[in-house]
Design a protein that fits this description.
The protein has one domain (about 1-160): LURP1-related (Porin). It is about 15% helix and about 45% strand. It contains one helix and twelve strands. The protein has a twelve-stranded antiparallel barrel. The mean pLDDT is about 80.
């Protein structure tokens, strides 16, 4: 199955919709503003919260807790590296490989692809395609991708503010 994430270009807080292959709304993502650390809520079409992401504050490197249906399933940790970003997914035993800056990477579990992430170029706003072979991995895969995107978004914002 494929999910499509199209983020709004001019938004004061994170708010966007995740659609399926037919263009039908599947999930709604809303970020909290005025909070200490980033927090994202993901709701299904029945407005039930399915995913909650919470940034751990006061850490040297970015860290996110991932909750699916109210249970913590993983912790995403950006590792300290000089050349390219490396992420650990504690709790799911998944491995992330690829080119994060080009938005072309995949998440692997014991040699099998859990999700393949690609960015669609030349679109209004950022559009990401998540190709998830096993529907049972859908929520966990979406949560991990959103956490990695949140870390990268914060790094871009920090880099932009330091160049001003």
């Amino acid at each position: 199955m494929k999910l499509y994430i199209k983020q709004k270009v001019f938004s004061f807080n994170d708010k966007f919709t995740v659609k399926d292959e037919t263009g039908t709304d599947r999930y709604f993502v809303e970020g909290e503003i005025f909070t200490l650390g980033k927090k994202l809520h993901v709701y299904d079409v029945n407005h039930t919260e399915r995913i909650f992401l919470q940034q751990k504050v006061w850490t040297f490197l970015p860290r996110f807790f991932v909750f699916v249906d109210g249970l913590q399933v993983a912790e995403i940790v950006k590792e300290f590296t000089f050349l390219k970003p490396v992420y650990s997914i504690l709790g799911l035993d998944w491995e992330v490989i690829g080119n994060f800056w080009a938005h072309d990477y995949e998440i692997i579990n014991q040699g099998h692809v859990v999700v393949n992430i690609k960015k669609e170029w030349l679109t209004w706003g950022d559009t990401y395609v998540l190709d998830i072979p096993d529907q049972r991995d859908e929520l966990n895969a979406l949560a991990v991708v959103l956490a990695i995107d949140a870390v990268m978004s914060q790094q871009r914002a920090a880099a932009n503010s330091s160049t001003r």
